[in-house]
Amino acid sequence: MNVLLAAVILQVAAGIIAFMLSKWPRAATVLGAGGAALGCLAGLAPVLQVLLTGLPQSLDLPWDASHGPFRVELDALGAFFLLPVLGLSALAAVYGGDYLLAYRDRKSLGGPWFFFNMFVAGMAIVVVARTAFLFLVAWEVMSLSAYCLVTFEHEKSEARQAGWVYLIATHLGVAFLFLAFSLLGYHAGSLEFEAFQKIPSLSAGWSGLLFVLVLIGFGAKAGFVPFHVWLPEAHPAAPSHVSALMSGVMIKMGLYGILRLLSFLGPPAPWWGLTLVGLGLLTALVGISLALSQKDIKRVLAYSSIENMGLIALALGVALWGQAAGLAAVAVLGLTAALLHIWNHALMKGLMFFAAGSILHGTGAKDMEQLGGLMKRMPWTASAMMTGAVAISALPPLNGFVSEWLMYLGLLKWGFSTGDSRSLIALFAVGILAFVGGLAAVAFVRLTGVVLLGSPRSEAARHAHESSRWMLAPMLCLVFLCVIVAVIPQAVTGLMGGVLEQVLRWEPGSALAKSASSEAPLYMIGRLNALTMVAVVAGTLGFLAWSRKAVRAEGVTWGCGYVMPTERMQYTGRSFAEMLTEHLLPRFLMPRTRREGPRGLFPSRGDFAAECPDPVSRRVYEPFFRRWADRFSRLRILQQGKVNVYLVYIVLTVVLTLAWVSLRTMWTAV
C-alpha cells in the first residue's frame, strides 16, 4: 500500500512542478508526462500483487477529524478497477506528451499536466478510499480536474459549453451520492466503509431507496440514459489522450461505485437486476443509434461509450438477478461478462480515441465528411483504428467478441433456467443485444470506411501526415493487449476470481464459482480466435504478395458520363446512415436538415447541411433549464454591483443566523 501511495504522491509532485515550469513547455511536458507515467508504472506492482494473491493491502493514518481516520485499502475489487486506470493513464501520458506539444506556441502546458496528474491521482484515491469523506473528496478532485481538462481550449465556445454541461451533470450526481452516504452513515453510526458493511439487515424500503440513489448518483458518471448528455459534449472538447481516459476509465468509476455500495446493502432484490437490465438495454440502444447519426469522430466514440456502458449495466443486471434467484451459473456469467467488458472497453476505446487524436493531429480535422483516403497517408494509425473498430464491434477474433459472447451465454442460461414469465425478459434481451451489435458493426464500418477509404474530401486530408512514434507506440501497445485478451481470455478472467467472490459474497476459493465458470469454455474461444487471426494474417500477406506480381491497369474511374467528378461525390457518413436516421428512427433522432437547392435559369450550386442533436438533451434538459433560467433571471435585481448593498446582505444574513441559533437554543432549553 505504501508503494501505491508513494506513486500517487509522485504524480501529484510532478504535476505541481510541471505547473511551476509553465513558461518552459518542453520541460513541463517532460516532468508532467514522465511523472505521470512513472507513477502509474510503480503503482501497478501492488495492484498486480493483490490480483494474483487475493490478499488486500491497507493503511490507517491518524487524522484528527470528525469523519474518521485516513483509511485506504486495496482489495480485489479496487485492484481490478485500478489496473486499467494506471495502465491506460501511463500510455495516455506518453501519447499526450507529443500530442500537446502542438499547442506549445499558443498554450501554456504546465496547467494541463498538473490537472492530468491530479485527475489520475483522484481516480486512484477513489478506488482505495475507505471512508465516505475521503471518497467524496477524491471524487471531487477527479471531477474538477476533468473539468479543467475539458475546457483546455476555453477560447472556443463549444469547449466552455461542454465544461458547463459536464460540471452540472457530475454535481447533480454528487448530490444523490451525498444522500446515499448520509443514509448509510445514519444506519451505521459512522462514515467508514467498514461500519457500512456491518449494518444489520436493512428493510426492503431502505435498501430499495439506497439502490435508487446509488444508481442515479453513479449512473450520472457512468453515462446511463438519461444522464448521458455530458459525454458527447465533453469527450470531443477534451484533448484526445484525456478523452481516452475519460471514456476508458473515468466513467468506469461510476460502475465501481455501484459495485462498492451495493456490497453494503445486503442480498439484492430481483427487481434490482431487472432494473439494470432494462436500463442497460435502453442505454445501449440509444447510444449506438445516436452514434450512427454523428459526423464528428469523437462524438461517434462518445456515443459508443454510452452504448458499452449500457452493455455492462445489462451484464450486471443479469448477475444481480442470478444472485437473487439463486442461479450461481447465471450470476457468474453475468458478472464475468461485465468485468471482462470493463477491461475490454478500456483497451478498445483508449485505442480508438488515440487513433482519432492521431487523425486530428495529422489533418487538423475531426469531421469525417472532410476526411477520406487516410489508409494510404496514415497507414499505422489506420491499421490501429481498424483493429479497434473490429474489437469494439464485438467481431471475432478480437477481445470485444469474448465479453459479449459471455453476455449472450448469461442471458440464454437465465432464459432456459426458469419457466416463469421473467425468462421471456432474458430472451427479449438477447434479441435487443443482437440488434445493438448489428448497429455497432454498421456504425464502425461507416466510421472507418468514410475516414480511411476512398479519396480525400479536403485539402487537410490530402496533406495528412503520420504521427510520431511517441503517439504510435501507445496505440500499438493497446492493439497487442486486445489480441492477448482475445487469445487467452481464460488467463485474464482467472485474475477476476477474487472479485467474483467479493461481489457475489462467496467464500474465498469457492468451488461454486469454479463449477459455474465451466459454463463458459473460454479456452475454446481463445483457440478459435487464434486460428482466425492466423488465417486473416496469412490471407492478407498472400493477397499483398499476389497484388505486387499482378498486372495492373490504371485509368479514370467511370463517372456515368459526368465529365467533372469530384471527391465530394463519394458516399458520406450521413448517406450511409440515412435509412436509420430518416426512415427507421426519425421521431426519436429528429435530424435537423437545411436545404438550399439550385435556383434560377442557370443554377451554379446548391447547399445541404444536416445534424442530429441529442434528443434527450433537446427535449428534456434544454426546456427544463431554460424555464428555470427565466425564473431565476428575476433575481438579478439583487445584484446591484454596489459594495454597500452587498454589505447589507451580509449583515442581514448574520443577524438572521444568530436569531435562528438563539431561538433553537431557547427551544431546546424549554
Helix content: over 70%
Radius of gyration: 26 Å
Q: What is the CA-CA span between the terminal residues?
A: 52 Å
* Major beta sheet, strand line-up: 1-2
Strand content is: under 5%
> What is the total tally of β strands?
4
Instruction: Tell me, briefly, the overall form.
Output: globular
Mean pLDDT comes to 88
From the helix content, strand content and strand pairing, which structural class follows? mainly alpha
Low-confidence stretches: none
Structure, explained:
The protein has 670 residues and is an all-alpha fold. It contains 29 helices and 4 strands. A hairpin with an 8-residue loop joins strand 1 and strand 2. The protein is globular, with a radius of gyration of 26 Å. The two termini are 52 Å apart. The mean pLDDT is 88.
Summed up:
By secondary structure, the chain is an all-alpha fold. Helix content is 72%, strand content 3%.
SSE arrangement:
Layout: H1 2-20, H2 25-53, E1 57-61, E2 70-74, H3 76-99, H4 110-128, H5 132-150, H6 157-188, H7 193-197, H8 204-222, H9 231-237, H10 240-250, H11 252-262, H12 270-291, H13 297-325, H14 328-363, H15 374-377, H16 379-392, H17 399-417, H18 422-452, H19 459-462, H20 469-487, H21 489-494, H22 497-504, H23 511-517, H24 522-549, H25 573-576, H26 578-584, H27 586-589, E3 592-596, E4 607-611, H28 615-632, H29 643-669
Antiparallel strand pairs: 1-2, 3-4
